[in-house]
Amino acid sequence: MDSEDRLEDIERSATKDVHPSTSPLTKSDGFQWKFRGSDIKNIVTGVHELQLSPLEKDIIIVDWDGPDDPEMALNWPLRKKWITVILLSTLTLLTPFASSMFAPSMNQVMNEFHSTNENIASFVVSVYLLGYAFGPLVIAPFSELYGRLPAYHVSVLLFIIFNIACAKSSNLSMLIAFRFLAGVGGSGPLTVGPGSIADCFSQRERGKVMAIWTLPILIGPSIGPIAGGYLSDALGWRWDFWFLCIVTGVVYILSLVIQRETYPLAILKRRVQKLRKSMPNQEFESALKSTKSPANLFFTSILRPTKMLLFSPIVLGLSIYTAIAYGILYLLFTTMTVVFEQQYGISSNNVGLTYLGIGAGQFIGLISFGAASDWIVTRMSKDGEMKPEYRLVPVLVGGSLLPIGLLWYGWTAQYKVFWFAPIIGMAFIGMGMITIFVPVSTYLVDAFTIYAASATAANTVFRSLGGAFLPLCGMKLENALGVGWSSSLLAFVALALVPVVCFFIKYGGRIRTHPRFQLDL
């Protein structure tokens, strides 16, 4: 709003046209120029040389060269866009991969540090997600103030550094602290990713792209224990972290070389900096620059995700839903190892393979959602407006598959039915998870496009809190009720939240546009 008000003020202050014949302006790099504070108004495309009298010299506003400006990420070639998505997806795979990769190694860790506390063992795994909860509160405003690219580079570098610290930890306290900080760094790609996709793709294209980007968030925790189980069995638990550092380091170097900035404010700011170097005697300013100071902007941006959580019923409701679903997923990650080892006698180095059930279900769900999402939105908006709420329709399917999978898994494991039976139930859980998370993420991007990173941050904070704390009661729940009834309890809770999604599909548009819920962001 600050940038728009400023541009209106610029145009009101300019009253007299200067024709190209009377001003030595030539065509060059596709910048839009406006003069403020004098009797001059001239908009041309590009400048090599500019001669102004002392009275005429004032601030030049740099803007896009129309809606088809090639530097705008939305207008990039498709190949360039998909290179960005692939890099983001790889980074987004590695950080959730780290969240559960460590789970099969906990017996080794607890033996080495001479502890038998089950709650501490669960917390060492889930504290990583607590970092996911706090990281977005800083990373999201950082990205909206300085650009997406610096946010990725800084957060991934911190992720590597703190995983090295985890590998060198000499006691449980150090390991817990550095796991938390690694989670803070690892939250970067998850927080900023939807903003980059919103920068590059139009609303009609985002469904498939968000499905591809979101898959690593869910499949990473599913394949992490497989690699972690074999690595720790062969080389020890510390190699879980060394492996992460090596792979992430390679991707980080590729990111430094290949990845490009997508955020409009950062791109225009870079244009301004180039012009200031070439014409140091002239003042230039981005059309999107805010009138607020960087400190004020950063503080406002930190508050934005919190305001969205507290005062937007849609963001809060969907965040609670995804928090419970994510908590259920990580509760299973911390208890499945025990269930398959005790109920079916699967060895500790092979038990990670049982997580493939969830991964397979997520892959099936991704293909189904990717094929159906954009088609559903296009069909529902055929005779009218393309509402973001149409993105939530697949959640009704996911919300039904999740409790079905929990009941199937719980009772087949309770009665020790053939070991593959509970894995089928886990596949339903995987399908349900991805058809909950992907539509919700896509909806938040469509509904809060300008502040997509903040809306995603708000959701990530709540979701990660669920993933961090709900697993702490996993073993107690199963010891008290058994795997069958504990899974049934979780299924009933998940099923009870489906009507919330129905409500948002029907009334979400009214809530978003109602004056009472318009947020001053």
Tell me about this structure.
By secondary structure, this protein is mostly helical. The protein has a two-stranded parallel sheet. 71% of the residues lie in helices and 1% in strands. It is built from 17 helices and two strands. It has two domains: 2-69 and 263-296, no CATH class; 73-261 and 297-511, Growth Hormone, Chain: A.
Helix and strand arrangement:
Elements: H1 2-13, E1 60-62, H2 78-101, H3 106-112, H4 118-146, H5 148-167, H6 172-200, H7 206-235, H8 238-258, H9 264-278, E2 284-286, H10 294-311, H11 313-344, H12 356-380, H13 393-414, H14 420-447, H15 452-469, H16 474-496, H17 498-513
Parallel strand pairs: 1-2
Brief write-up:
This protein is mainly α and 521 residues long. It is built from 17 helices and two strands.
